[in-house]
Every structure is written in structure tokens, then in C-alpha cells.
# Entry
Amino acid sequence: MPRGKSPQALDLPRPANWLDQEGVSKQTGAYEALRSAILGKLLPAGSRLPSSRTLAERWQVSRGTIEAVFDRLHAEAYVTRIPGSGTRVCAVVPERFLMAGFEDATPAGPFSEPAPVSDTGVREGLPFVARRADASLFPMAAWSKCATRALAAATPEQLCSDDPAGDPGLRRHIADYLGKYRGVRCSPQDIVVTTGIRHGLDLLARSIVRAGDKVCLEDPGYPAARALFAMSGALPVDIPVDAEGIDCAALRQHADASLVYVTPAHHSPLGVTMSVTRRLELLEWARDSGAWVVEDDYDSEFNYHSAPLAALKALDQYQRVVYCGSFNKTLFTGLRVGFMVLPPGLLPLLLRTLQATGRSVGMTEQLALAAWMEDGAFVRHLRQARHAYKERRDLLLACLERDAPGRYTISGQQAGFHCMLWLPPGSDERVFCLQAAQAGLALQPLGDFCHGVQLAPAVLIGYTALSLAQVRHAAQKLALLLLID
# Structure
């Protein structure tokens, strides 16, 4: 053997049955075989691998396959490849690694499954959990042109902005929109850009809620809000909701609460609109208690009967309301841009939290959306989407009225992405949902949104992200279920 040369590992066995394993390519099989040989010290550090030609002939694969495997091992620092010296193992494997083995480790002590992540169950195109914006209505070609112009004109200062509140231009357009269409008088300095409403709730929970604080929530209500505040250590307090919104008489029993979360424009899930009287009572309670009111205005843009009431924030003379909105609800869910309007007393706290956790919304999305709003395209899209959703709602209601008259009651249909369908008295809503699933329909029972209250049997009907054909076909199935229930 020439001096300085280690023996070539010509006795490397061909991987057993690698060609019989479904879904395993020759390249993957060869890679795993050589990697295992290195980790098992069959090929120790410093040893030289056979040439690609030799190994290809021995393993009956192409030389190109072996070269690709060698390149991958080299990229992962298992081997070095030096012209004139061949391919050598450079990975040093400690003995403790070999002793540990590759068996599945079993943790000592009791083991519990992690808590499942809450899933809203909302899906596009699936009757009747399609309660979100229909992305097929979004004019992507026009958006693309607008975004291209905005990014072409962007300055390095804009792209490298470290303002945690977000792009000033986008915040200016949001403030202008809220003033014109939601009655909210605010300045761009009051606005913080988020990835959506849940991001805003999480920031609030991190910034102003301490472990053990009371947080009042609507019952029934939005499950994600409850989960986010509970994760911060808050003590959830369930406040009933009636035909006028949250029960302020029950709320007054909790003057020590740190905040209350409400959906006044179109209650989630009941669909009721909070009356002006209740809104004023709620603001009085917040002032007297020194508590914050979090207004989730998730689908207020879509009112089908008349202009919606101005936002609760529009009545906020005491600076106690945090207003949360989302473009994910109005344009498409994957946009991931939302916003908050904050009272002066909260703004510094939220900005510190946002700066510490890292700004989550990319500047390119913000600049594109700012240009989109400046062009007037956002408002035009809202008008078109509102018309499309109303058409789908009207078709749904007409089909049910024609095919199952007197077998149900509808509420919350005046606005938003969904309505409530109240079942005949004595019905079991969960059994009804199981029967619907067998018919190819997905329904959410009202009970999933209730905690301390018990209400009549009902299910949510989401329709906005369905085509007219889907609405018609699914409504016929739903009507048949109502007739046999």
C-alpha cells in the first residue's frame, strides 16, 4: 500500500433491498447507506471512499448517482473532496453517539399529549363553514400591477424602516378609511399594523394583562379570543349576550376586570348588532372601572340591508376602546395584514411589546396595500364583494324558504359572513351536525361557542366563500335534513 494512503473501503456492502422499498430512489438509498457507514464508524474519519466509478459498478447504479451522493455528503460535511486525493471521511463520530443508538427515545416519567391548537374549522368552498372572504373575487392582476408600481417606487429608507407601528403611508390610508366609513376619528399615529386581529389580541394580552386578571368575554363568543387571553394567565369571565349585545348589567358585577372583548357590529357567533344604548352603557362601565374595551370589527364592511352603525370606537370619548380590524377578512386570508387603533395610554406599551417580539408584517405587503388603497381599489373591491355575498345570502335564504318552510328560524343574516340557523325545538344540534356530515355538509353547533350559557339548538351557516352553485346544492341538502329532523 502506498505510504500515507488508507485502504479503500471496497468491501462496502450494497444496501439490502433498497430497490424494493417503495418511494426510495437509488440516490437516496446510496446516500443513506454511506451516511450510516460513516455514523457507524464502518468508514472512520480519514478513511478514503471508493471512487465513484468503482462504487457505481459494485452497487449497479450510474456513476452520476454516486457523484450526486458524494456531493451531498460533502455539502453536509461528512466527507471532503480534494482533487488527486479522492473522497475522504471528515466527520468525527464520538463513542457516546454510537452508544446512544437510533432507537426512539422514551421520556422518563409521565407523559401527556400537548394541548391541541384551536382550529376554527373555517374552510373555503365547504358548505357551511365557508365564512370568510372569497379569494376568487380578488382582482389579482390589478393588485399585481399596483404592487409592482409601489415596490418600484420604494426607497431604501422605506424598505429598511424600523418603525414597529408599520408603514406611515399605510397607516395614513387606514385612518382616512376609518374616518370616512366607520366614523372613527383617529390619526396615523394612533394606528399599529399587525398580521390580523388575533395578532392584535395576543399583543394586548402580552402588554396589559397580568396573571390572575379578570378578562370579560361574550358568551357565546369567539373561541380564539378566549384561548389567547387564557394563555396570558387571565381569568376568563363569561358575560351573556342577548338581542342587544353584551349584558351590561352582568358586566357591572365585575368592576375589577382589566378589559372586556366584544364584537358589536355583528356578534360572533349570534350575529346580533349591539344597540346604541348598550354601547353607551359599555363605555360608561369602562370609564368607571378603568378597564379597556377591545372592539373586534371583523366583518362590519358587509352589511346587506343598510349602512352599518358607526364603530363603537366612534363613541369613545373616554379613550378606553382598542379597535381591531383586518384586511384578511375583507380581501383574502393569506394577506396577513391587520391593524389596531389604540388609545394614547396604551400605545407605548403595545409598541414596546411589538418591538421586542419583532415586527411581523413585511414592508412589501404594507407598501402594496397602501398603493391599493390610494388608488381607490380597496373600496371598489368592498362594493363588489358585498354585492356577491348578498347574492349568495339571498339565494341561501330563498332555497331554505322554498324547500323547508316553517322548519327553522334565521337570525344575524343582515350582515357578515354567516347567519344562525335555529333548529326546531327539541332538536339535538350535535346529532343534526352528524347527519349533515353524512350528507356532505359541515356545520358548527352553537354549543361549541358557549361556556356558561345554554341556548336553543342552532348551527352556524357560513356562505360567503361558496359559489352560487354550491349554495344552491348545499341549501337543498340542508332543507331536506330540516324536514326529517
About this structure: The radius of gyration is 30 Å.
